Amino acid sequence: MTSFSSDSCSFQNQLHQTNQPLDATFLLFLIVLGKILLNILPLGMRRKNSCQNVMECFCVSLAFVDFLFLVNISIISYFRDFVLLGIRFTKYHICLFAQIISFTYGFLHYPVFLVSCIDYCLNFSKLTELSSKCQKVFYFLAVILIWISVLAYVLGEPGIYQSLKAQTISYQCPVHVSIQSYCLSLPTMIILFMAFITSWSEVITLAQAIQITSYMNEPILYFPSSSLPSYIVNSKRILLPKLIVCFLGTWLPLVLLQVFILLLKVQIPAYIELNIPWLYFVNSFLIATICWFNRHKLYLRNTSLPIDPFVNWKCCFIPLTMHNFGQIESLCQ
Predict the structure, then answer these.
(1) Is the pTM of the predicted complex or chain greater than 0.90?
(2) What is the per-residue pLDDT for 322?
(3) Where are the transmembrane segments (predicted)?
(4) SS3 per residue for 110-179
């Protein structure tokens, strides 16, 4: 069990100590409020509004949990000292909730990534044929199971319990910094860098050749029509540059931010680090990886690709021309 000291990431390091509860609580309130606003932005910008995969359902659940956390902070800050269902709540419960949320969020990266990967592999391989309603119920239950399992581990793990108990007695409020996000972010950046170096000339040539326009209220990329004959994507030389251009064309700002965080070794509390923009970024990277490993199966006329709320991968693979929009419309839905 990794020990978490109070100098790792605490309210004390965030300008205030817990002997100034109002200031620390107000700072936490502003941080969580800012995160909720950050969550709302991608949820409103996504192309699809229905939960059609595990990652989508988890993002909605994360936004809901963040909202409940903000409501708890607001209620306890307003009443300060009150009894509910026989339990006395004081300002110190704000710190306790923040610690539990941080530990829980810190252990969610791996299970969400793993379950999403399994979900995409099964859907891409068409090993499971479920109706839309059954799929949504299954995703809902899977997300609930993830939350319950991680929360049970956090509350039942002796090391975490002793850490929470000791910090409550000492009136300090250190906040957990997750190693899981670092272990996901670093390999992602390395893979992106290696992929770009491998095909940098093709990426630059492709980026100079494509054109961007709007069709059916969606941005469409015009790739050279000679690059993908017969709508079949099965060449490493052809597919990799397109994946890089499509991915970086959407997520380049977040890629640069991740590089900045990794280089400076910035420690971000887990309750901030697990956010919806980061999850959608991981989601797009995961879909691109699945497409890469299944490149010989990408027959675009009959293959159902995983749905990405921000990148229409199928349209990115199709060589668009001005006279085949009618044919494209059925493929890009």
Answers:
(1) no
(2) 41
(3) 24-45, 57-79, 91-116, 137-155, 175-197, 243-264, 276-293
(4) HHHHHHHHHHHHHHHHCCCCCCHHHHHHHHHHHHHHHHHHHHHHHHHCHHHHHHHHHHHHHCCCECCCCC
